[in-house]
């Protein structure tokens, strides 16, 4: 494909300098960057390289770098990163558009150093997006930090997490017009893996999905929501801050506790129910800690304004964990090794079997005073599994974890694990164990089968959602 000089100038453009980040998403520079990134994506293949149409690709890269230069004054805190990004794009183009390498600009991007409520970042990388695109395509975003005072106080105290970054989506390219709600450095195309210093979650997307899904699910199940839980459905800002508190405790939990394995389970291939238990463990720790914070602060009558907010959101985190897990996680995504879905099913069944959740006369009810102890008991059961597994071989840990899950959920009738693995598998390599796990080892219960059919359009409608949509 060839590009005429007139077309080239039209693509590149020279947008006016943008000096206010609050106006960035409506500026000509941002629109030029976004259009060029989308056009460049169409030329890329799975690994991010561009096998042909290099003249056109050069024009799009020139448009992107011109836009970065125009937008950079609005993001002075990102000056080093944006300069490195221009260099990475120009080097990629000069090298013939092979597999992109944006390590230098990634290392220069340090959003965890600017955790100030409302501060914005311009972000552009070739990357894949979790729960979005599996291909390393160019993505451009404008994002905004969510960092209220009570979160800063929590992080400075007992819940330190220097890597945690909380963001709000302002505008984005198609890889984020999906279910992706994270920005992780490991997704970026780069020549080597550095020490990662941050990880970001889009709490506005999580909050907006939660509000839409829980509102619909509570109507379908005729659940009479507590007043505080109802307030979250009516208030995006309140829900966003609640999710920040949940996620900052969840995120740090991956690195804490009696862990029988690499906390993030990186580069490990294991049965997916192990991932279910790890993610659920972190959520239930956030629940447990929120109960403790609420109890401690509620016992005092001299709370500061920040402590009052902390206490309020600690109560709301408990509702968020329960309702997001049972109403959204359990029925979102495919039934192929859906570890978050399994965790949601497990929590629902655990509460039901302990008599604090009831599905009677086609209405869902909770015995709220007894719910915290029941939820914490599930967290204790997972913690006990982990503690014992420090002294177990890996395969024995897997078997024990399976027994914990099957003690609550009914396995697939065709399950080899449920019938008992053969001696050959038991004596063999761990891969044999994993290969015998069915894609849907623990199918949906009849309750969730019925709920999923009614909720499917609602859940599908949340793809690409952001806080401003609610």
Enumerate the strands of the largest sheet in spatial order, edge to edge or round the barrel: 1-2-3-5-4
**Low-confidence residue ranges:** 1-10
Rg of Cα set: 24 Å
- Overall SS class: alpha+beta
Shape verdict: globular
Number of strands: 7
Instruction: List the helices and strands in order.
Output: HHHHHEEHEEEHHHHHHEEHHHHHH
Please estimate the helix content. Answer: 40-55%
Please give the alpha-carbon distance between the first and last residues: 43 Å
* Number of individual domains: 2
Number of helices: 18
Report mean pLDDT, rounded to a whole number: 94
The biggest beta sheet reads: 5 strands, mixed
What percent of residues are in strands? 5-15%
How are the SSEs placed, and which strands pair?
Layout: H1 5-12, H2 28-41, H3 54-71, H4 79-94, H5 103-108, E1 120-127, E2 137-145, H6 149-156, E3 164-172, E4 182-183, E5 199-202, H7 203-220, H8 227-233, H9 236-253, H10 272-298, H11 305-328, H12 339-353, E6 357-360, E7 363-366, H13 371-389, H14 394-406, H15 416-419, H16 423-427, H17 430-435, H18 446-460
Parallel strand pairs: 3-5
Antiparallel strand pairs: 1-2, 2-3, 4-5, 6-7
Helix pairs in contact: 1-3, 2-3, 3-4, 6-11, 7-9, 7-11, 7-18, 9-10, 9-11, 10-11, 10-12, 10-13, 11-12, 13-14
């Amino acid at each position: 494909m060839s590009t005429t000089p007139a077309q080239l100038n039209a693509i590149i453009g020279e947008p006016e300098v943008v000096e206010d980040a609050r106006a960035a998403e409506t500026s000509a520079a941002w629109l030029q960057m976004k259009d060029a990134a989308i056009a460049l994506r169409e030329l890329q293949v799975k690994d991010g390289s561009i096998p042909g149409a290099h003249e056109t690709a050069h024009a799009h890269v020139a448009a992107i770098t011109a836009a970065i230069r125009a937008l950079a004054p609005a993001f002075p805190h990102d000056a080093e990163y944006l300069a490195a990004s221009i260099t990475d794009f120009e080097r990629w183009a000069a090298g013939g558009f092979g597999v992109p390498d944006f390590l230098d600009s990634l290392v220069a991007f340090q959003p965890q150093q600017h955790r100030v409520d409302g501060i914005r970042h311009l972000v552009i990388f070739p990357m894949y997006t979790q729960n979005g695109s599996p291909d390393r395509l160019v993505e451009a975003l404008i994002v905004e930090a969510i960092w209220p005072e009570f979160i800063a106080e929590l992080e400075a105290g007992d819940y330190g997490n220097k890597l945690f970054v909380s963001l709000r989506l302002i505008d984005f390219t198609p890889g984020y017009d999906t279910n992706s709600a994270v920005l992780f450095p490991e997704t970026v195309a780069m020549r080597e893996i550095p020490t990662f210093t941050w990880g970001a979650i889009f709490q506005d997307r999580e909050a907006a999905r939660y509000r839409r899904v829980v509102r619909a699910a509570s109507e379908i199940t005729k659940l009479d929501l507590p007043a505080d839980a109802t307030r979250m459905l009516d208030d995006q800002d309140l829900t966003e801050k609640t999710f920040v508190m949940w996620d900052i405790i969840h995120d740090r939990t991956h690195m804490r506790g009696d862990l029988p394995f690499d906390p993030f389970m990186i580069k490990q291939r294991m049965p997916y129910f192990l991932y279910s238990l790890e993610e659920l463990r972190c959520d239930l720790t956030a629940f447990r800690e929120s109960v403790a914070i609420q109890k401690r602060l509620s016992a005092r009558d001299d709370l500061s304004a920040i402590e009052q907010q902390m206490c309020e959101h600690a109560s709301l985190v408990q509702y968020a964990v329960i309702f997001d897990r049972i109403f959204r996680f359990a029925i979102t995504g495919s039934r192929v090794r859906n570890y978050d879905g399994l965790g949601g099913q497990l929590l629902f069944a655990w509460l039901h079997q302990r008599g604090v959740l009831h599905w009677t006369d086609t209405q869902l009810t909770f015995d709220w005073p007894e719910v915290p102890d029941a939820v914490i008991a599930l967290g204790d059961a997972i913690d006990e599994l982990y503690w014992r597994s420090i002294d177990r071989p890996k395969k024995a840990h897997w078997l024990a974890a399976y027994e914990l899950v099957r003690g609550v959920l009914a396995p697939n009738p065709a399950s080899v694990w449920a019938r008992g693995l053969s001696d050959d598998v038991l004596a063999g390599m761990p891969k044999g164990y994993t290969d015998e796990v069915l894609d849907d080892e623990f199918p949906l219960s009849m309750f969730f089968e019925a709920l999923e059919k009614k909720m499917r359009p609602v859940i599908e409608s949340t793809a690409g959602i952001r806080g401003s949509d609610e």
